[in-house]
Amino acid sequence: MQVKTVESNPHLVDTHQEREELPFTLKDLKDAIPPECFKPSTGRSLAYFFQDVGIIAGLYAIAYSLDSWFFWPIFWLMQGTMFWALFVVGHDCGHRSFSQYKWVNDLIGHLAHTPILVPFHGWRISHRTHHQNTGNIENDESWYPVTESQYEEMGFFGRIVRFKLILFAYPVYLFKRSPGKEGSHFLPSSPLFRPSEKWDVIISTICCTLMVGLLGFLTYQWGFLWLLKYYLGPYIVFVMWLDLVTFLHHTDPDIPWYRGQDWYFLKGALSTIDHDYGFINNIHHNIGTHVAHHIFLNMPHYHLKTATEAIKPILGDYYRQSERSIFQAFCRGLNSCYFVSDTGSKIYYQKHK
C-alpha cells in the first residue's frame, strides 16, 4: 500500500450534502502534543537562520575560488537547495513560529525572503489565506484543482503552463495568482490584502525592488554571465524546489477536496500528505511533516516531527503519508491530477480524458 486513505474508492464523487464530522477534535490533537512544542525559541530559530546563511556564504566562496564550468551546475543545485532552506526559515517567520517577537519575525522574514525575491508580507498574507482554507475548492489560495468545466475551457497555452511547466510556476503566481483569481503579491490594491495591510505590502515590495536593483547594478558591472553563474542558476533550482514540494503535498489522487458547508478547518487541514525527502529532510527543515504543520500553523519546524508522532494514533487512517519516492509521487500527481467534478463535495482529482 502506497498511501493511507480513508475512502475505499477515492474516485467516486460524494454528492451527499450532510456535513461529515471527524471522530476527533482539534483539542484532542493538541492535548496529545507536549506543550513545549508550541513554544518557539528565538535562539534556536536564529541558529538555523545563521546556519543557512553560513552555508550559502561558504558555497559562494567555493564557487568564486574554483570558477569552473565543471563545478557551476553542482553549485547551482547545492545553492538552490540552500535558497529553498532559507525560504523555509522565512516560512516560519510568516507563520509567527520563528519567534514570540513580531519584530524578529518580520526582520528575519525579510532577510530570508528578499534575497530570493519573495515579497515577505505579500507572500505571508496569501499563504495565511491558503492555510485558513486548505482543501476548500472555493476558497483555497494556491495549488487547488480546477473543475472539469474550467479544464475544458482552458486553452492550449494555459494547459501547458498549468500541467507541464508547474516546476517554474512560482514567479508567475507572485504576479498573477492561481487560475480564476486576480491580484499581485506586490500591489497593496490587490484583493489579496486588507486596507490595514497596505504598508506591510509596500515595505516588502520596496525590499524586492531594491534587490532587483542590486542585481541589475552587479550585472551591469560584471555582465550577464556573472548573473547566470551566481544568481539565476541557484534561483531556478530554488523555484523548482518550492513548486515541487508544494505540488507534492497538495496534489495527490487520494487527497479529498470539499465544498460549502461540508468543509471546516480541521477537515481541510488533513487534505495534505506527508513525504519523506531522505537526507534533504534535515536541510529544508522538516517541510515534509506537512500534516502537522497544516493543523498547527504556529508550531516551529523543529517540533513538527514530535508532533506528528504524537497525533498519528489519534488520526489513524486520516493521516496520510506517501511511501513512494519523491519522483514516483511527482509522476503520479502529474499524470493523475487534472481536475475535479463540477458538483458534489468530498471529491478527488481525476485524470484527463
From TrEMBL:
Protein keywords: Iron, Membrane, Oxidoreductase, Transmembrane, Transmembrane helix
Fatty acid desaturase domain: residues covered: 68-319
Transmembrane segments: 46-63, 69-89, 201-224, 230-249
A Gene Ontology biological process term: lipid metabolic process
Highest rank taxon of the organism: Bacteria
GO molecular function annotation: oxidoreductase activity
Cofactor(s) annotated in UniProt: Fe(2+)
EC number annotated for this UniProt entry: 1.14.19.-
Family annotation (Pfam families): FA_desaturase (PF00487)
PANTHER family assigned: OMEGA-6 FATTY ACID DESATURASE, CHLOROPLASTIC (PTHR32100)
Family: Belongs to the fatty acid desaturase type 2 family.
UniProt name for this protein: Fatty acid desaturase
Lineage: Bacteria, Bacillati, Cyanobacteriota, Cyanophyceae, Oscillatoriophycideae
